[in-house]
Each structure stands twice: as C-alpha cells, then as structure tokens.
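Same chain as my last thread, 179 residues:
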Amino acid sequence: DAVLRVLGDGPTLAITGAGDISIANSEFGRKTISVDRSPIQTQYAQSRADLLEAGDWKGFLTASPFEEYEWALDRRNAYFLENGRLDRIAKNVGLISFHVDDLFQAARKNPNQFANVYASNVFGYSRMHPNFYSGRLDVLANALVPGGILYVADHEDMRLMAGRKGVKRFVPESLQRDR
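reply #2:
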C-alpha cells in the first residue's frame, strides 16, 4: 500500500508477475501496461483480472499458480480485502492491459510515456557490476516523464549508486529521477 501511494498519477509500466501490483494499482485509477516475458504469468494475471471484472472475488482471492506460494495468500488477501479496497479495484481493473513482452523492451518502445515504472525485483537479488544496473536503470528511466518514479526492489548496489545516477531522492525501495 505504501509503495502504491508513493507512485505518481498517470500511466504505469509494470512487470506482471502474479499481477498483484498491476491489479492493486488500478485502485488509484491509473492506466497500467503490465508486461512479462512469460506467457504463463501473463495469462495467469489476466485471468485474475478477468475474475475481478466478472465479480468473482472468491475466484480472484483463491487463485494461486503454485502450491509453494499458498503461505502468501492470507497476506495478499488481507491487503485486497482491507477497507473496501477490492470494490475500488474492481471498478478500475479494465484500465490494465497485459502483454507478453520484456520490461526493458517495453520501456525502450515507450520513451517519456509513464509517470511510474514498477520494476519490482526484475534485477533479482544477486550482486552485479554497477554497469549492469546502470544501463538498465537508464532504459527504464527514459520511459518516465520528468519527475516520474522508478520503483525497484531494494538492492544495496543501487543504494550506493543512487547519487551517481542523478537520482533526486532515494526512498526505500523506490527511485525518483528527474531527467
């Protein structure tokens, strides 16, 4: 919730994963382009959005692609059920479009188009050479409008690099870059 409230108004480019972020983002009435290289992930997330649009909240809340993630369902569902959130999301879920695409390719194809780019843990959690992050961060940042927000999972390497990349402010787990 805190992350989604930090994001600016305007369209969002997001990594799809299970679809939770793209779906949750619709609570705020933001158009979201949700991309994932995996057709299976994309289809799964789209099917969850379709369940919401059809009014099948139970189906939406019980959908889980893998048994090993069952432990996370209670936490996820508590978020979606809090304070009438699911009502607000269901009204706007049609603002999401799901695509099989690479996040970096989608960013390259859409320069200066998004108020937010939500990359989550697209970089993984392994330590890489700073140039690995730098070039990819530039690709994502170029998809942002001036003052847009780039969200990435918190990596110590990125925290160290933030000042060198023209990052205006570093909020835990998010970067805002003024281009």
